[in-house]
Amino acid sequence: MTIDKIHPEDLEILGEKIKLGESRKLNFNTARLFTGTAVEVPVFIERSINPGPTVLITAGIHGDEVNGMEIVREVLTHKLNIPTRGTIICMPIVNIFGFINKSRYFPDGRDLNRQFPGNSKGSLASRFAFNFSKEILPLADFCMDFHTGGADRYNAAQIRIEDDNEVVSKLASVFNAPFTLFGDQIEGSYRESCGKMNIPILLNESGKSLSLDKMICKEALSGVKRVLAHLDMLNPKIEVPPIVKKSILIKETHWMRADCSGFLHIKTNLQDFVTKDQLIARISDPFGAVSHPVLARNDGYIININQAPMVYQGDAIFHISTKTE
């Protein structure tokens, strides 16, 4: 994998040619509503007069993950997307369908992040993934993709990468999220598709769906600044936040699940280091008769907490590291 590639002066994207030094807002046309109204995904392109790599920054592959969308919105607002060299392409809301409906999924009920690289004759989500993979993704030399935890599961700020990839590992250390998780690529995911195309990608998880957390967004924005500065693409007038504490590298994790149903009372905090048999929650019935303790099964960091007020037996309630570096 490499990031610095030689590109022609004209960038051809979505049927248009964009020269060095130009900026453009295009619409990625995907499909129409029942009314015939076109559904368009905004694509923001900024090109420096100086040649360099192309960075693709995306969010909203799941339509309810607004925290990720907010991060990319702030990239645009603070003009981090105007490079000193190369090209930056931003897509704050990839899954417009889901965003409109406040849903994780496409209208066909499918998870877009399981449909890559897609099929030109498949379902709506698969067709979208196919067109994205053919028309936009091949232009990228490096990707940053922003997500959140699903439903009420709140993710501590983290970068997810595959193991044994020096280029991606270096970029993850520059981004420096509180946690860096090593994990296999999921079949059909955007990250797997990038891997097969030899495009380095950092996948950021911050917060939970249908929720905005300005502090965790600010943390991710700091990571974006550090990476763009590392690539010599960030305007030197923009202050780059220093690294105060290095990211904690997590090799293995496990989910703790509820042994019973009831009200969930959390007794620990996200990012805390807990010890085996420490009380981290209680699950009680709604009538005050029973209260079950939830004890940590091992020493580790809390990297996800289920913030749902009520849980069923078997629901995932904590994501805890089991092996760190």
Automatic annotation (TrEMBL):
Entry cofactors: Zn(2+)
> Which Gene3D superfamilies does the entry mention?
Zn peptidases
Q: Which InterPro entries match?
A: AstE_AspA_cat, N-alpha-Ac-DABA-like, N-alpha-Ac-DABA_deacetylase
Domain Succinylglutamate desuccinylase/Aspartoacylase catalytic, chain residue ranges per copy:
51-231
Q: Give UniProt keywords alphabetically.
A: Hydrolase, Metal-binding, Zinc
Question: Heme as a keyword?
Answer: no
Which GO MF terms does the UniProt record name?
A: hydrolase activity, acting on carbon-nitrogen (but not peptide) bonds, in linear amides; hydrolase activity, acting on ester bonds; metal ion binding
Q: Which domain of life is it from?
A: Bacteria
Known Pfam families for this protein?
Answer: AstE_AspA_cat
PANTHER family (alphabetical): BLL3975 PROTEIN, SUCCINYLGLUTAMATE DESUCCINYLASE_ASPARTOACYLASE FAMILY PROTEIN
Q: What protein does this entry describe?
A: Succinylglutamate desuccinylase
